[in-house]
Amino acid sequence: MKHVLSVKVNNAAGVLSHVTGLFTRRSYNIDSLCVGATDDPRYSVITLVIDAGVAMIGQITKQLLKLIDVIEIKNLTGEISVKRELLLISLEMKKTDRAEVLMLSRLFETTVLEMTSATIMMQMVAEPRRVNHFLDAVKNFKVLQMARTGVVALALQEDIEDSLKK
User: Fold this and answer.
1) 3-state per-residue secondary structure call for 15-37
2) pLDDT, mean over the chain
3) How far apart, in whole angstroms, are the C-alpha atoms of residue 1 and residue 98?
4) C-alpha distances out from residue 159 to 76, 80, 156, Å
5) Please, which of 25, 34, 63, 110 could form a disulfide with 122 given CB 3.0 to 4.6 Å?
6) Tens digits of per-residue pLDDT, 45-98?
7) DSSP H or E run through 157
8) Could you tell me which residues are beta bridge partners of residue 72?
9) How many contiguous H segments (helices) and E segments (strands) does the chain have?
10) Cα 22 to Cα 90: distance, rounded to the nearest angstrom
């Protein structure tokens, strides 16, 4: 099962290397990794997607908390969070394909960034599962370029409010 961990860390040089080094040393695989600063410049959030069992996630969490720069870890797996991914994709498009590609763009709520007579570049921000479905839908077209970010996630507001009451 894929687990999404949100790891709040000190925003300092080498912290990402320490976190990923823990995975390397123990031969754990990271499916997705996304890092960004928080509203407080002293901290960053590392969002990790890991395909592992519950016991392994517990072990990973304990090991991460031993690192000096790790402040907090939230498991955002399942329905308790909002997850998004960004996809930029450029497709080769024949004139006869234009209507189909634009229909897929509307269906999957992508944004057309650039279009020529032979290519189209689109942007999509969606749940990772929806991004995968879009990529399946356009698999018959030649992909010229593609970039896909890692998952970013936030806990749902009601879960935050519940934890504040405790």
Assistant:
1) HHHHHHHHHHHCCCCCCEEEEEE
2) 92
3) 38
4) 11, 7, 5
5) 110
6) 999 999 999 999 999 999 999 999 999 999 999 878 999 999 999 999 999 999
7) helix 157-165
8) 8
9) 5, 9
10) 35
